[in-house]
Amino acid sequence: MLDFIVLFSGSVMTAALLWACSRDTPFRTLFRTLSIVLAISLACCPMTALALQDDEATAVETATASADEAPSAEAGPVDDAKPESTSMAPAANVEGPSGVGIPWISYLIPLLGVAGLAFTFWKTSWVSKQEVGGEKMARIAANISEGAMSFLKAEYSILAVFVIGVAILLGYAGSTQGESSSPLVALSFASGAICSALAGFIGMTVATKANVRTTNAAKTSLGKALEVAFAGGSVMGMGVVGLGVLGLSILFVVYAGMFGLETQASLTRVITVLTGFSFGASSIALFARVGGGIYTKAADVGADLVGKVEAGIPEDHPLNPATIADNVGDNVGDVAGMGADLFESYVGSIIGTMVLGGAFFTVFNQAGLDDFGGLSAVLLPLVLAGVGILTSIAGTFFVKVKEGGNPHHALNYGEFGSAAILLLLTYVIIKFMLPATWTVGEGAGEFVYTSSGVFFAILFGLAAGLGIGKITEYYTGTGTGPVTSIVRQSVTGPATTIISGLGVGMMSTAIPILIIAAAIIGAYSMAGLYGIAIAAVGMLSNTGIQLAVDAYGPISDNAGGIAEMAELPAEVRERTDKLDAVGNTTAAIGKGFAIGSAALTALALFAAYITAYNATHVETPIVAISITNPFVMASLFVGGMLPFLFSALSMNAVGRAAMRMIEEVRRQFKDIPELKAALKVMNDNDGKTFDEWSQADQETFQAADGKAEYGKCVAISTRASIREMIVPGLVAVLVPVGFGFLPKLVGLPGNTNALMLGGLLAGVTVSGVLMALFQSNAGGAWDNAKKMIEEGYEVNGQMLVKGSEAHKAAVVGDTVGDPFKDTSGPSLNILLKLMSVVALVIASLI
Known about the structure:
Structural class: mainly alpha
């Protein structure tokens, strides 16, 4: 105990010293991150040392027992009746530090993660070398970058406390579990959190560089602008997958060397400790999504309602005080937020599949079917994810467009070209790694697995992802029937606009849910629960280019805003608008894709939770979760309620932050003389070009340049987002913990607590997916209905244009939809995955 106190005190002092030394340096964020890692590592040292002492003794006993009682994995079949291996992989394994065989392929996977990061650094360097443009453009971009970085610093400072606290608790809990876990679960948690935060930091940094360079490139051609914007997005995409694969694969190799891979128990321990990585990623993702969503929507509402509706100026006009905060919000919400969201899904699907694949370990070894030490089903998701990095990199080279071409087609070439290559390689890899056939269970519970079945399960996942994306595009795309119906009903005012948008959002849930249900049944029929999990991996293996396409959208949006604020020629804004329009479509598809992957990932994690619980609770396993059990039914209802509570918390947070933003924008328009005078001359000269204004009016307008106090609006969004994200985040983490432990404390018998936690997860998954679809699609439809009116749309002989009553009604609808599609809707994806990950992490403890 004394050693623990001394080392922990030393870690805190060291962290404080590094923190203080970094306050006035440009690398203070990096130093602070290193301080966090050091503090966690030192805090866990005493527990780790004790655990490793036990591990060493256990390893000797296990090795002796294995030598006396069973043949090794490399010894081949026990008797001649057992089938020969159908895998083409070489049988040689590399010896780990403890003398336990680690499959050779495990050492190749980290190199694929390094390849993703190398591509990231190359593209970052290329973007940085592009021309920024004029002094005014550079100043605007610097304001956006400064606002984005200030948000990240404020957010990460709060999250650092959370990460350290939870890591210490996990380390302590792991040290009490003997051979079923380890205090190193704290290291996994901290690593996952840091990788997720680092991915967001890298993506945000490059996105705020690429926006102004895209604007400048748009002066030259559409193709050059697309190249710069997509390069910026690809940094986010490849950074996410590179860090995910590198972090998971390195930790797996390290833990395999420490704990061994000779027995089912040792493999379970390795994967159990590894699950902390997913917990860390999920925690950061939730706070990033909620905080970023609150930030961006508070700014967007202020810019829309006061700037557009009340003052009658464009959203990105330099006179609008909220315009910088709005452009910052595009980055923190749609770049860092979406990146953290898909990083979490990406990692969670891999972890869930590894847990379920571990169940085949004994079967493969006893039957002599596996040339990877019984680990082929465990390593397969990591290999697929790693190869997906290479195909995503290849896909980026297909994204090119000529002047006058369609950027959407160029992005589709890259995305679908990459998917086609990945699909072909997936088939080869599955045939290479998995046995042709194997059987699990006996009698009525017997299930025959095939490598072809695993491949078809992946096909179901890919088809579901594409199907949901296309349905999302139909319900939210410009010019489609559902969106046009909202435009037509905007003629009669905001009330009918809201009603029609809600109807579109509710209707949009039907087909995606049927697609998800079909994918679940199809994947299960092909390869059981493992098939559902690997379907999620297949859907997310192409995350690198999928996220690149998605992150391209906010960069293009920012580029258009900079063009507007810098008052560049009309053809520049036309090019950026063309990119932005495609970005809106890709963002809608990306949100649908994220929801579909979240559903399959949550189900995979749910199955992994049951598997992990049964592995450590042999006397009270979960055989079935029956809804006739009153405790399960009660938990099911609570789980179904949580997405509504979570949405309410995030929506109300946006409302409160937006009120403060609206008051600030109104104050500036009223109290800053230059802004007030400029608004007056703009209204007086409505319909005229700037060259047609009088000299006096031009001078009055130009005198307002730079007078708007952008920083105050940025500060309002930052403070509000940091403050308001805490309660929703705690709900997501504490509720599953409560259901896991409280029933035992009040004396409920047997595995009632585990069953109740299962009911909770089932309720939150079903309700959460439906709510996420509804909110995201309703918000997207309202947004594009507004854009259709701004471009001009005729209804019953009346031309609806910007500034009309129908446009004002559509702006109100879009204002309601903004927090739907960018805050509460996307956050629900993470809620249901995070709760499943928490359940998986605590499965051995409850």
